[in-house]
């Protein structure tokens, strides 16, 4: 698989989580972090999945300039990022846009903090207009087993969640699907 070069300013650092839902059961897989980078080479925003160790090492946050190589995802229906498997990542500069108010643009906490806090549904509109750069927002890849007698029959989609404080104004509950085992 051919690697893709990226270089640009980090627009968001959020948890990268996959949810498997089967009727009244659900399970989360914590994959690391999802970055959105304003790529200087393509002049487009690029979504990139990184491991938790990469985030721990570089302490990435909104406003930093980074570069590296990544690989396009193999199963796009099960991902919310376009690329992953990052290598040779470098921090080129720092102009962090830290905020102690929503949207929070601090260094994203370790994955166990997200697991401990738990997700709350967030409307897509709130996510897209107010929460895309917030470290507590999450666009989660959801895999749904729709037939318990035929587990190979699945449906895929993205859902938006918030891990932040319940007092946050943009945190408006999203519309729940018919089944809501989150």
Summarize this, please?
The protein is mainly beta.
Task: Spell out the blueprint of helices and strands.
Blueprint: E1 4-22, E2 25-39, E3 44-50, H1 52-58, E4 64-72, E5 83-94, H2 111-117, E6 120-121, H3 124-131, E7 137-145, E8 154-162
Parallel strand pairs: 1-7
Antiparallel strand pairs: 1-2, 1-4, 2-3, 4-5, 6-8, 7-8
Describe it.
This protein has 182 residues and is mainly beta. The chain has 3 helices and 8 strands, in the order βββαββαβαββ. Strands 1, 2, 3, 4, 5, 6, 7 and 8 form an 8-stranded mixed sheet that branches.
What is the number of strand segments?
8
Beta-strand portion reads: over 45%
Number of helices: 3
Amino-to-carboxy terminus distance: 35 Å
Oligomeric grouping of the chains:
single chain
Low-confidence stretches: 174-182
Q: What is the percent of helical residues?
A: 10-25%
Keywords for this entry:
mainly beta, globular, 3 helices, 8-stranded mixed beta sheet, 182 residues
């Amino acid at each position: 698989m051919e690697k893709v070069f990226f270089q640009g300013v980090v627009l968001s650092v959020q948890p990268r989580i996959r949810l498997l839902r089967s009727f009244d059961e659900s399970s989360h897989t914590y994959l690391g972090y999802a970055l959105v980078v304003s790529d200087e080479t393509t002049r487009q925003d690029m979504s990139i999945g990184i491991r938790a160790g990469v985030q721990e090492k570089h302490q990435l946050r909104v406003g930093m300039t980074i570069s590296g190589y990544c690989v396009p995802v193999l199963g796009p229906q099960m991902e919310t990022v376009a690329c992953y498997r990052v290598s040779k990542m470098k921090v080129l500069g720092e102009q962090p846009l830290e905020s102690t108010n929503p949207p929070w643009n601090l260094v994203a906490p370790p994955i166990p903090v997200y697991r401990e806090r738990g997700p709350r549904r967030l409307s897509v509109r709130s996510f897209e207009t107010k929460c895309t750069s917030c470290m507590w927002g999450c666009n989660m890849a959801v895999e749904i087993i729709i037939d318990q007698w035929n587990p190979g029959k699945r449906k895929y989609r993205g859902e938006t969640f918030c891990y932040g404080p319940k007092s946050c104004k943009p945190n408006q509950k999203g519309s729940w699907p018919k089944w809501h085992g989150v």
